[in-house]
Amino acid sequence: xxxxxxxxxxxxxxxxxxxAAEPEIWATDGEDGSTRNFVLWPNGGAVMxxxxxxxxxxxxxxxxxxxxxxxxxxxxxxxxxEIRIGPTPVVDFDNGSSERSRAQARPAFAVRDGSARxxxxxxxxxxxxxxxxxxxxxxxxxxYAEPGSHGRWVRVSRGIRVEWHDGAIDLLQxxxxxxxxxxxxxxxxxxxxxxxxxxxxRVGADGFEVTP
Amino acid sequence: xxxxxxxxxxxxxxIACLGGCAxxxxxxxxSGWSGVWSLIDAGxxxxxxxxxxxxxxxxxxDRKPGAKGARGYYRRNGNGxxxxxxxxxxxxxxxxxxxxxWTSGPPDERRRQWHxxxxxxASQERFIGLWxxxxxxxxxxxxxxxHADGSARNSLSSAAGKWExxxxxxxxxxxxxxxxxxxxxxxxxxxxxxxxxxxxxxxxSDFSTALRVGKKPFAVRP
Lengths: 212, 222
Prior knowledge:
The complex is a heterodimer. By secondary structure, chain A is mainly β.
């Protein structure tokens, strides 16, 4: 009985911690029909990812401040946004150019379904590779990686599968210890080849280190 | 002939006006807000440094731990600027007539309390702010805050020091007797330090490059 109670407390604590660490995600479209996602972390960090012309695997970092009615975002690129919350949420996005060509407010929606836990930017180091790899996953199903790689992602059992334009496959899942990634280069079968998993990190979840 | 001359003069006037207007617009867009602002009524000596690259650094005498400031980004917002810092704090400035005001209240709240902000003298502006100096034996860098009111803080001690212009640079004096001198040299700023009891004519105990935090793009990781 006691172990059941202890287990229940543990599960509740874990659930509470996981819930507290989840970001708000707002999706909108850009002027050119591209998709823009704002990932707003409770620690004040913000990540913007976009598809189309400005797409990068690394995304754009920044900070945000929330009020009852709005979310204010400023980004390292000089761009910024105000997300106004209401019956019909809208985003005012400003690309930060000196022309101040603020676009018209565009409709936005909060992503709250099961895909929310995957959206944003993930970073990891490949086994035997000192380089860092960034991957951006967007609410429209598109995926971007550094450098210059793009693909699509779909939900699969316990995770997501990314199919890259060059034929490579990534499988991102969660296990008891957190996120787990397996990558198959082009030409390797996902059934006969079992790559070494890595532990990716979701950008912004642990805050940003800003230096100097 | 007369009409040709007047047409030519008019054309020159229009071109001159367009050039002048464009110049005003450029100044307003790029450098209207950059500089050092002292925030009055902030509860403690507080200065805000806005850089041309959309980065901002807030230094306050009451910030803990140490004097490492708060880093953030800002953008133009209507008649002013909106700054958001790494911890999610927000600060807004606006121009009202000849006055500049600041607030940290929510932007969508009408009853916000606004306080005056004062731009620092241009001659001192290049020194006021947060500086990263030499690495310490602990592996951490020494940071120094220079405030517009002449006070100074560092990341090693909670005791306040003071700074003053000296020989083209900024000379900091600390309660323990240490002195730091920041001076521009060959396109960079050099930091020299003297321990208690030594003279400024002695060789310094430290000689390194000082980095003004915010002038170059922040590294944001991961």
